[in-house]
Amino acid sequence: LTTDQTAALTTAQIGALTTTQAAALSTADVAALTTSQTVSISTKDVAALTTAQIGAITTADIAALTTGQVSALTTAQIGALTTDQTAALTTAQIGALSSSQVGALQTSDVNAFSTLQIEALTTTSLAGLSTADISGLTSTQAGSFTSTQVQALNASQLAAVLQAYNNV
Fold it and tell me: 82-94 pLDDT, tens per residue?
């Protein structure tokens, strides 16, 4: 199919693609999909997309993905997200990330998190944050950790939060 033909597919047709067919979409095909079409890609098919295909998804489409689709992203796919794509993640999507997915985020992506995105991290997913991720946070970002989140941090992470908060 051409990119124009792919863009003309209905959401039902997109949802019916096999994993092999979804993986065969070009990055131009993925970029041409509407938000409704992107959201209609099955969870298993989202996990089969290449990092280049993930990179072609618009920020609006990233924000529209279901939490199930986001949870299905591989660590390679998560690591390939741009800072703009990561910034587009909703708090529900952030809350759906596993610790290994959080660990796959680039430090620059974590450092670009909003305070609401930081607050959305679960106590389990916090384990994926490196001290470098935390050390690069602003004092406002570091101050947005909830008391429950702070209690879940290990000693190295806590020291990094204190350093970022105090801007030492």
Answer: 999 999 999 999 9
